[in-house]
Amino acid sequence: MGLAPKPEGCSFMPINRRAAMMGLGVIATAPSALAQPSIVPAWPARPLRLVVTFAPGGSTDIIARLVATGLQERLGQPVIVENRAGAGGTIATTHVARSEPDGYTMVLASSTVMAIGPALYRSIQYDPIRDFSHVVLLSTNHLVFVTNNRVPAQNLNDLVRLARTTNGGLNMASSGSGSLNHMLIVLFGNVSGVTLNHIAYRGAGPAMAAVQGGEVHGMSDSLPSAAAHIRQGSVRPIAIAGETRSRSFPDIPTFREQGFDLVSYGWFGLSMPSATPTPILDRLHREVSEVLKTPHVVERMAEFDAIPGNLSREAFSAMVRADFERWGPLVRASGAVAE
Length: 339
Known about the structure:
The chain is α/β, with parallel strands linked by helices and 339 residues long.
């Protein structure tokens, strides 16, 4: 149909045919455009939340705040660290799994919440593989047994002898039920044949205070969390659970060196709800990877024996899955159960 004749006295110009066709093209394509996935808006446009699964003072909190500071400088938005302790970190992890997948909520993931918790807790409400996109590995670290200075044990064999001669066994603390440190206590009790009573605290900070105050005999902790206390001499290191000794603490012997075949490493990473848009996941991985390379972060991590991560997103996801498949059978075989 042609254009209507120009009315007398009307001052408008005839519509350009090319423009008319373009307009028709927009109208024609509108329905198909609506059928496509929505375009990710500019990100980030507001503050981000980093949910930490344990109380302030432990290695989870140290790593989280170190990375959050560097990340907010790169993104130009605040990164708010929110501590949600309880149930071995599963409360905080469940909260993030149910959060809006808009790129503004992430959890400080660890082997505790992604590998051990699902096998330890009967009423777990998230699946570490299905419900999360695992974004970036932040660090790996050694685990360490320490005792208070009044405990008459200098090594693991001393600790075993003491446990056998102490009525009721020894009380060993950790940062919470279901933590990797909890499982190391369980496994050491199994391989040594002694009674170690696990005492769960709401984070590594409160657990360390209990050790120093003599409320418990010792604890299983991550080396980053315990490093300052070891240097100060307020606790005594007994063994680390690495394949080799720590470069930062070369005087601490491994479990294997002392005749106990236990090797385990802790790790921390960032994970988001599984439906978070891929462009956001990719950018967050890039930005955090750059943060981990900065001299300040490298130096600070070296102070407490944390090794910055350097895996791709895909490799980190594969690592989480492998850890999940490794720890599940071990937890179930140990008989450990948490409600």
